[in-house]
Amino acid sequence: MIALVSALTMPVSQILLRNMLIQKLGVDSAGYWQAMMRVSDGYLLLINTSISIYYLPKLSSLKNDIDIRTEIFYGFKIILPVTTLGCVLIYFMRFFIIKTLYTPEFLQMENLFIYQLLGDIMKVASLILGYLLIAKAMVKTAMFTETFFAVIWVVLGSLFVDFFGLKGITIAFFINYIIYFLIMVYVFREILFGDLKNKFS
User: Is the pLDDT of residue 201 over 50?
Assistant: First the structure.
């Protein structure tokens, strides 16, 4: 059910955002953003696959909050630095990537990289906590957050494009995942920050 909701909300939100860009900025701007998303999705696929294969089963096997917290912090210690390093490399290679994958006209998308990559880092940070929803079968919470933040992305994207132009849609992406991460921290605050020694003594 969670996978189904995710499979529906993400494509629908991207279609709505693309149509919004076409209406406000034109089809070329929508194409630049779609090209940026393809770059982002491409390198995140490896990270997401690694998380799904190792991290999710590991979380599902853990029974107490101490072990879960240890595994989450281990995930942050290993996965986030790798993601950040990858994003830094992609940022400095952005002109090469654009010229290799696309035509010279797409060089106009280079100013989308910074906030998209920052958003990708926050997205991975959110997934490290978000996968705990799946591991612990918190179906309603997972379905709600997937739907809610897809809607927020569309709303923020529409508003920020009015203020910042095309770059606004990547700023919205970044802010959306900052909020998502903070919500996940709040949901799992007892696991992350609770007095676990007293709880299990």
Answer: no
- The whole model's pTM is what? 0.91
Taking only the tens place, the pLDDT of each residue in 156-187 is 999 999 999 999 999 999 999 999 999 999 98
Q: Are 191 and 65 in contact (CB under 8 A)?
A: yes
Q: Looking up tokens 């958003």, which residue turns up?
A: 119
Q: Residue 69 contacts by C-beta under 8 Å, 6 or more apart in sequence?
A: 191, 192, 196
CB burial class (10 A; 0-12, 13-18, 19+) of residue 137? exposed
| CA distance linking residue 42 with residue 36, whole number of Å | 10
Domain boundaries in the chain?
Answer: 2-199
At 131-145, the pLDDT tens digits run 888 777 677 888 888
**∠ CA 5-2-150 to the nearest 5 degrees?**
45
Pairwise CA distance, residues 48 & 75, whole Å: 12
Long-range contacts of 11-18 (CB under 8 A, 24+ apart): 12/150, 13/150, 13/151, 13/153, 13/154, 16/154, 17/153, 17/154, 17/157, 17/158, 17/169
